[in-house]
Write the structure tokens for this entry.
Amino acid sequence: MPLGRVPSRFSTQAPADQTADASSLLLLGALEKSAAWILRHCFSVAEICWTLAATGGPAYGKPDHLWLAGMLHDLGKLGVSRAILEKPTGLTEQEFAQVQNHSFIGYVTLQRLVGDWIVATSSLHHHERFDGTGYPGRLAGTAIPLCARLVAVADSYDAMRALRPYRGRCSHEEAVAELRACAGRQFDPELVAVFERAAVEIGEGFEASQGLGEASILAAVRDRLEAVDWESVTPVVTARA
Ligand SMILES: [Fe+2]
């Protein structure tokens, strides 16, 4: 997944109106305030989401749309203390509850800021597990929205590959093996199969993104946000009715 290909993924349509400009600016401002490792993580997850949607076919949604969902899935972490997010040792029950709350904070924020069902729902449900033991809804199987199941796989791959303040990293092969081992329990097995079809491309894309500095990632995100077809997003209220 050479990064040079990425800008062509979005339509070249300019932002439709002032609201779209404002949304882009607000999102960029929020992302700039994120810790560097969160920004890198979200960008990497977004890239993987794009590839999964493109590989899976139309049933998985528009790749550009899933890119946006991946980019913003952890926006709610801005509402969680950095000290807790980066705590090197085990979290207390109360701290873990605060971390878990990021999915709901992201949902509420994105509902208002973007107003898009896929983007907001992906944030809310990306920590659900296929066997129904995740959070916040303990949804199981296909009751978990497809977009959130897709983001969950991308999120977990990147989380395993990336160096975090509190642990080391897995190799590509180890991360893919773990996804396979958890298919049907943590992850939708069909999405793990899609991932395996695109695994080489995803692994190469991950490696390429590791060479990018924070400024380069923000510039790439800015380009993509400026090219989002904001008129195609689905109002949350309409989609849930
Ligand atoms: Fe998350």
Observations:
- The CA atoms of residues 42 and 72 lie 7 Å apart.
